[in-house]
Write a structure and sequence with these properties.
single chain; alpha/beta; ten-stranded mixed beta sheet; 5 helices; 15 strands
């Protein structure tokens, strides 16, 4: 039996321009977009569940769940950020057929696969950006991770796993882009993939998805999601982030690696999207209220964690590792 991809989306009325290989400059507080019949405010998130198992190729083959003691792994969800001028504000894709249940997940110290409560991360340079040297993108990702680690409400004990020459990535392996089903770090920045990978997440997603973070969770021997610490959230094994090589990447300008990595690292550390997006004025300028790292769309270079971002982070991590 094929597993299903389940799509949950927040929709924006109107048709906005695409951004394939877009090098247009964006302002700090707003993004210029052209639109037809746009709404003045995004509607509330409306779940739309789409069965994609009828696609010609089998997206998720049977029998790939890896084992960890008495627990297995499976893919729960992916969250992605979009360019500011796309007609789709960042969404969540669910890889589980329990679409009517809560799909939040969080790390559990006692289940840490490296045996410590310290949060580890890894940067895979085996899938480099076509626009920047691997050393530049790795340094930008390191800065993003350091920014979250410096939020003073948390004691993550963050560590970086040394690089190897072996391509990593449970999701990349799952979808046929190379990689490994093995754990290497709690948060893995797994490199740049071509546009067709992001088309799997949303129709023509390669045009507007900047990055996507996937959550791999533990299951019991029957494939059921588990909540061993009884906190109302599914137990996370690790998370992986992939960046879209179809779009143009820069260091300190649009699309800025550090800004997008900061957002995706927020997902890696259990934060969801935050804030509303709306369009105002005769030029259909896209605004965010409040403007924050965890907004669902890119709003320009943003390497400082906002107050709302800190609040979300601290709500997840202030008592870590005591739960």
């Amino acid at each position: 039996m094929k597993k299903r991809l389940i799509l949950s989306a927040a929709l924006l009325s109107g048709v906005l321009g695409s951004c394939e290989k877009d090098t247009t400059q964006t302002e700090e507080t707003e993004v210029q977009v052209s639109a037809v019949q746009v709404s003045t405010k995004l509607p509330e998130a409306t779940p739309i569940y789409t069965n994609l198992s009828s696609m010609d190729n089998e997206i998720i083959p049977d029998g790939i769940d890896s084992q960890s003691g008495n627990l297995s792994y499976k893919v729960l969800m992916a969250e992605y950020i979009t360019s500011g001028d796309a007609d789709r504000i960042g969404r969540t894709v669910f890889f589980d057929d329990r679409g009517s249940k809560q799909l939040a997940g969080d790390f559990v110290p006692e289940l840490a696969l490296d045996g410590t409560p310290d949060i580890s991360y890894y940067v895979d340079n085996n899938r480099p950006s076509g626009d920047l040297p691997a050393a530049v993108t790795e340094a930008a990702i390191d800065r993003a991770m350091a920014s979250w680690n410096e939020v003073n409400c948390s004691e993550l004990g963050m560590t970086k796993v040394p690089a190897t020459d072996i391509p990593r990535g449970f999701i990349a392996a799952l979808f046929g882009y190379g990689g490994s089903f093995d754990y290497i770090a709690d948060v893995t920045h797994a490199g740049w993939l071509p546009r067709d990978f992001f088309d799997l997440l949303d129709e023509d997603g390669g045009d507007f998805i900047l990055g996507a973070t996937f959550t791999i969770v533990f299951t019991d021997s029957d494939g059921n999601l588990v909540d061993t610490d009884n906190n109302g959230k599914y137990d996370v094994a690790w998370r992986e982030t992939y960046y879209n090589d179809e779009l143009t990447w820069q260091d300190g300008d649009t699309f800025d690696v550090e800004s997008v990595a900061l957002h995706e690292a927020g997902h890696g550390l259990s934060q969801a999207h935050f804030g509303a997006a709306f369009i105002t004025g005769p030029n259909n300028n896209l605004h965010f209220a409040p403007r924050a790292v965890m907004n669902a769309a890119y709003s320009g270079v943003q390497t400082q964690i906002a107050k709302s971002d800190k609040g979300g982070h601290c709500s997840n991590w202030s008592s870590w590792p005591d739960r």
